[in-house]
Amino acid sequence: MEQISSVKINSNNYKITFRKIARAAAAEVRVHKKIAIITLVLYGVAFLLFAFDGYIFGRPEKIVPGDFDTYGEFEPSGWGTAFAIGGIVVSFFTALNVFRDANNQQLCDVAMALPIKAAERFFSKLLCLFYIQTAPLIVSVLGGNSLAIMFGAMRFHGYLDPETPRTLFLLTLALLAASLFIMSIVVLCACCCGAVAESAYFSIILMFITNALPIAFVDNIIANTSGFSHRYGLLFSSNDIGINVKYWGFLSLIGNDEMQTMLQCGISCLISLAVMFSAIFIFKKRDARTVGTPIASRVFFEIIMAAACFTVFMLGAMGEGAMWGVLIAAVAYVIVNIIVTRAKINFKSFLIWSGKFLATLAACTVLMVAMVKTGAFGFYKTRPETKYLEGAVFTVKYTGYNGYFYGSSNKIASDKLTAEQADEVMKICQKHISHGIMNVNPFDVIFDQSAETVRVEAYSNEYYTPCPHPSFQFDYHYDDSHFARLNDAFSLKYSQRLRVSPNDANALFKELEQLDYFHKIDLDDYSYSETVIPV
Amino acid sequence: MIEISTASMVFAKKGLGKAEPNDGFKALDNISLTIPDGCIYGFLGSNGAGKSTLLRMMCGVYRTEQGSVRIDGEDVFDNPVAKAKIFFVNDETVQFTKFTLDGLARYYASYFDSFSYATYDRLVTKLQLPRKKRMSEFSKGMKQQAVVIIGLACNTKYLLLDEAFDGLDPAMRKFIKQIIVNELIDRQATMVVSSHNIVEINELCDRAMLIHQGQMIFADEIDNIKSGFGKIQLARKSGAVSLEEMKNAGLTVLQYNVMGSVAQAVVRGSVEWINEKMNSLGCDICEFIPLTLEEIFIYELEARGYGANIIGEN
Q: CB count, 10 Å around CB of B37?
């Protein structure tokens, strides 16, 4: 007679061990063999390309020991990176497949009847993702490039750019950040959705939100309501009043320098891991009843829908299309709800959606009005350090409505100022701006961009300021004592453009004109982008 | 022993979260049942009665929010110790199609410490199933055989089969049933099987329960169930015995009809008790006819209105 399952231990003594998780993960890998092989092929090709297509620039015969400029400079293979990105794209489908039992009744029956705790099952899936995706990615990028560097080091007699390890580390970290970001989003959505379609398209929506919301909110709303240079964008600005929120998602791959990118990617990896691991709290709460229903977590659904609407409103508002933003968000909101309810709609459900949508729109409007009235919750008071403005020349311009069109109706410029004088000008400007933003209609600000604004700009005639997006620059003599600079991307030190009432603008000009180092200038209206700087 | 105590299950409309009874579909309503060790238990019920839900609850696929389901004294949901004693075969095999039979065995062996490759090899050889062929190329019957083999090879104390014989031809059905019964008897294991095929339950099981619209109608040994119902025919010269007379005599009548002076009724109760009540009605001829399990199933459900509309329309 054979022995019946001889598990004698009590459930109280049951311990979650890595051995059990690893065994379950190995079983998961075997189940997802097809996608694992596809991923391995992509990363395998990437490995070979990294190894044999990576470049070491320079001339070995010109090497001067101690002079880094003559050393070989490493550049990873572009094609290798492309194949690695291909593997990362596949991670979307890998994560979706590995968590397939969260949205398929038959697979769920198998998975949930197995003698394994929900937490073990969850961690075994994450480990499976590590085996299929993360480990091959790291081996491919680090291994392939290390080989390229070794070959290069031989050719350059060991004289390689000292920044080579940093370049390699940055590339690995950036690709890892992208891969972990995608997988964390898919894992979270698979745990919160009960159907594979919802898991997939909610992942795409969530990826859109996590990347677009910082741009929409920081680069658009905060920039507009604080008045700081929207033209260059706070997110992509290198000046010291820029805000960095590029800590999660694909935006983290864009940094102003290597160190910043590395920091952003590192933090992005940590956030992705935190999101992935925190999905366990939803995963553990679920049983097979939520499998097959489009949305398992209504809280998740409502948050995502509100955030998506919020993002689209923000992108539209204060740009050229506030109403377009509302319209697109409304249509998308209705379509997603129709899909999620599988077209089981009636008048009551339509009313509920409308109510939720209008509530989101109202919350968004309240937030934007509050931001206009408070100058991005006081962020408009942010000022560059005085040393940053030392030697700067201020121009203050008012664009008003003369009954026919908007145009510059007042414009004054300062001489080159000392730090103390710059500080005094800043204080005066911000005093009037503080008063002025309280006297404008916030809805005009949100929905109508072409209206009265006061613009304060500080330029420097120091030639070069690093800018991530340098563009065309051309200086020419305006008259004997001035030259004009077209396109001030290189020299703009400080710019604040805010809507204030005409009275506040006049008060500002009156006070500034009393300072003996300010003088009124009269340039043609087409000189909108010109700056007059004393020679 | 599997003990189900006042278990209820509601499928909520709103996803996660505890569902209120009025907030969705109540699949199970206050079910209490004890399945002793070593028996073969049959779950009978109409379509959508809650058989599969109850089986899924018993193997921890569904969380028990009201009441409890305990395997050898332990709650089953998210409890690997209790789940290691159960193998559940559901009514679909589509989830296994990308496995080969050997691959499926390896998959389950990763999770069940009690998996026996000796049993697996013996049964695969006996049923002559291809080991290396993908199960997507198997016929429906072959897939069912494969899953049953895996279930037996897992060597668990309890085997739960949800309409597992449906894809099999009659000869294979008999053969598989024989294999299962032999294996389980050898191991003194317990099997719970749900089926619409009442003849099969009658042949295979020593206990059965009937469930309808989430509520349990009866659960007992099959012999006791059969002896608890009967069809009576009563003839009286002075006129047929009316339904009221039967009820006044204390009989629980599930179905009643009359042809001339002969009344026929399906009643609940033991043979002795029914005979005693029949005799009190003063009939010229009284006859007691035992019911088959299938007849009991049909009469019980008809008494609850199941199929009445369809019968009425026809």
A: 13
Task: Name the range with the highest mean pLDDT among A129-138, A474-483, B224-233, B283-292.
Answer: A129-138
Q: Compute the half-sphere exposure of residue B217: CA atoms within 13 Å on the CB side of its CA.
A: 25
Q: Which two tokens stand for residue A177?
A: 């950040």
Estimate the share of chain B in helix, then strand, then coil, as percent rounded to the nearest 5: 35, 30, 35
DSSP B241: P
Question: Which range scores top for mean pLDDT: A226-230, A400-404, B91-95?
Answer: B91-95
Q: Considering only residues 160 to 199 of chain A, which have any Cβ-Cβ distance to chain B shorter than 8 Å?
A: 194
- Give the mean model confidence (pLDDT) for residues B175-183: 85
**C-alpha dihedral sign at B175, B176, B179, B181:** negative
Distance from CA of A135 to the nearest CA of B (A): 22
ipTM: 0.86
CA nearest B252: which of B269, B227, B272? B269
Q: CA A177 to CA A184: how far, in whole Å?
A: 10
SS3 (DSSP) at B218: strand
User: Which tokens sit at A373?
Assistant: 């009235």
DSSP label at residue A16: -
Q: Which of A330, A322, A336, A335 is nearest to A365 (CA)?
A: A322
The model's confidence at residue A388, banded by pLDDT at 50, 70 and 90, is: low
B136-174: per-residue pLDDT in tens?
A: 999 888 888 899 899 999 999 999 998 888 767 888 888
Q: Indicate the residue of A1, A194, A296 with minimum beta-carbon distance to B186.
A: A1
The CA dihedral of A415, A419, A424, A425, to the nearest 10 degrees, is 40
Which pLDDT score, from 0 to 100, does residue A119 have?
Answer: 94
Please tell me which of A343-357, A402-416, A455-469 the model is most confident about, judged by mean pLDDT: A343-357
Maximum Cα–Cα distance across chain B: 75
List alpha helices for A193-321, DSSP H: 196-214, 223-226, 258-278, 280-285, 298-316
Quote the strand ranges of chain B, DSSP E: 2-12, 24-35, 40-45, 66-71, 74-75, 86-89, 158-162, 190-194, 207-212, 215-221, 229-235, 252-259, 262-268, 285-290
Q: Where are the alpha helices (DSSP H) in A64-221?
A: 78-98, 105-112, 118-129, 135-138, 144-155, 164-192, 196-214
How far apart CA A132 and CA A141 sit, in angstroms, is 15
Which amino acid, residue A357? F
Tell me whether residues A296 and B16 touch, CB distance under 8 A.
Answer: yes
Q: Tell me if chain B has a CB within 8 Å of the CB of A343.
A: no
CB contacts of A194 in chain B (<8 Å) are 15
Would you state the pLDDT for residue A163?
Answer: 86
Task: Provide the token pair at B298.
Answer: 């049909």
At A97, list the tokens. Answer: 């497949």
Closest CA to B152 of A9, A5, A117: A5
| A4 Cα to chain B: minimum distance (Å) | 6
Which 8-state DSSP code applies to residue A72? B
Which residues does residue A392 pair with via DSSP β-bridges, in sequence order?
A460
| CA distances from residue A314 to A252, A318, A370, A444 in whole angstroms, order as listed | 21, 8, 14, 15
By CB atoms closer than 10 A (0-12, 13-18, 19+), residue A156 is buried
Q: How far is A327 from chain B (nearest CA, A)?
A: 28
pLDDT digits (tens, 9 = 90+) for A290-346: 898 899 988 999 999 999 998 888 887 766 667 888 888 899 998 998 888 887 788
pLDDT digit string, tens, across residues A212-264: 888 777 777 777 788 776 444 455 554 555 667 788 989 888 877 788 889 99
Query: In the predicted model, what is the mean pLDDT of residues A485-500?
Result: 62
Q: Model-level pTM greater than 0.90?
A: no
